[in-house]
Amino acid sequence: MLEHFQQAFADLIASPELVIRVRDNPEIIRANYEVSDVEFHRLISIVNHPGMECNCMLYRANRLVPIAMNLPKLCQALGDDLNSLLSDYWSEFKRTDVHFLLESDRFLQFVFDKLERGSRVRERVGDVLEQEAAALRARIANSYSTENVKERQPTEDHEERRNFGTDKSPLRRGKFT
Amino acid sequence: MDTRSNGQPVVGLLYNPAVPYIIDQVGDLVQYIEVIPDRFWYDFGTDAQHGRFHWVHDAVDTLRRCAGGRVIAGHGIGLSLPSAMPLDAELLDQVAAIAEDIGFSWYSEHMSMFLTPHSSIPNAQAGLGLPVVYDMDTFEILRAKIRQLKDALGCPLLMENGSIFTPIPYVEMTEPEFFNRLYDELDCGMLLDLHNLYVSWRNGAASPEDYLEELNPDAVLEIHMAGGDELAGFYTDSHSRLTPPDVWTWAREYVPRFTRLKAITFEFHESYFSRLGVEGIAGELERLHDLAASCSTVKSEVYA
Predict the structure, then answer these.
(1) Rounded Cα–Cα distance for residues B110 and B92 (Å)
(2) Which residue of A5, A78, B105, B301 sits 20 to 30 Å from the alpha carbon of A139, by its own alpha carbon?
(3) CA distances from B39 to B224, B244, B282 (A)
(4) Cβ–Cβ < 8 Å for B90, B62
């Protein structure tokens, strides 16, 4: 079924390790997803396509953007440990929070939890983690302070734009500055 | 300058935080702004305690200032129409609210999958939306959602072709056939991203010329132009450069055939603004105006 096909596709681009396993053993797909024969063959073709490497790279690059933007010093301090931490984090949280500050805060909490459990990166990132956590949470609080939607009266200009390209009154001459 | 009187499409930019500055410098070249609604609020999620959406009103006010006297359209990234799951009705309400507030002339979404029930495909920088299966199952999903969107927004709807790194085989329709059918049966126009065609071609897809020949030219209502980057042997839609020469060649040959074309848009990401510069973007806009001038054969009934 299409829902399972789409989920399998999304799971594959999120996990180069799963791609490699499915290339070796395609039946992993049937064991984990309810897909038709044609959907199965589509997925196997996709998994073995050279472009799958690019899908996986872009997935990781795009998921890294909010974290690199909002926690640059932490990323730098984590050094070689960043890659494996991100893989673990993305494996546990498959959906990016579209609020980039919250996504970054969730990763911070993930790193905090790792430290609680005695991760060896504690000494290198401790101070940086505290500093960036404080700054990030201030920004999150600020984003809460924005207002909810308010109703506004449409303006004449607004009405003209809405009618652009329809059989209603067209934009006037000279409106495009 | 009234582009409507001579039947030419308007020329403009995908809105980002650098665009107000560009408008201050070379506003005469920007007739049209395409707006990603999701950039004007924070979405705290469906279980947020203090309301899910918090709007950034300073940003909306700046947009409103830039919008004055220009054509504005919405360009969505969050609804993921081809996904086999219900529409996010709360998000749609917000899109409808900003469409009403700003006044969208039309609204476009991507023919790509960004959401599944258990995961999401982030689209922060270089575009990554998963390709969709071109069959009747997908068509029926879109039929229902396009109706919902049209009802909610009250304006025409377009769908945009994505850049594809892994084509889906064994499908019932080619991509142009699918877009033609959307237009014929659902009155849903196409936002033709010529750079996305280039990206797919650079990564092994079939000839863009064959694609463009198969497309119903009447379906194309907006064009996207952009430039990208190499990444580990692949070419991506990173919106980081000016439009490459091959894309210009296709644009000059095919765009004049799109007789219902309403807008030509240059997309760049704000993180590359310092690389492109105002002069670079102004030069691209001037070339787009020349391209628009080649589209003087618009059928009179379109804008009647």
Answers:
(1) 15
(2) A78
(3) 19, 27, 24
(4) no
pLDDT in tens, B228-261: 999 889 999 999 999 999 999 999 999 999 999 9
Q: Closest-CA residue in chain B for A51?
A: B165
- Interface membership of B6 toward A (CB under 8 Å): no
- Residue B115: CB partners within 8 Å, gap ≥ 6? B80, B83, B85, B121
Where b means 16+ CB within 10 Å and e means fewer, B212-226 reads beebbbbbbbbbbbb
Residue of A157, A169, A167, A172 lying closest to B102 (CA atoms): A157
B224, two tokens: 């996207």
Alpha carbon distance A84, A67 (integer Å): 14
Distance, in Å, from the CA atom of B234 to the CA atom of B204, rounded to the nearest integer, reads 10
ipTM of the complex: 0.91
Residues 79-138 of A with CB under 8 A from B: 94-102
| pLDDT value of position B133 | 97
Does A7 touch chain B if contact means CB atoms closer than 8 Å? yes
Q: How many CA atoms lie within 13 A of B228 on its CB side?
A: 28
Which residues in chain B touch residue A51, judged by CB atoms under 8 angstroms apart?
Answer: 164-167, 203-204, 234
* Chain B CA closest to residue A68: B124
**Three-state secondary-structure class, residue B43:** strand
Asked whether the whole model's pTM tops 0.90, one would answer: no
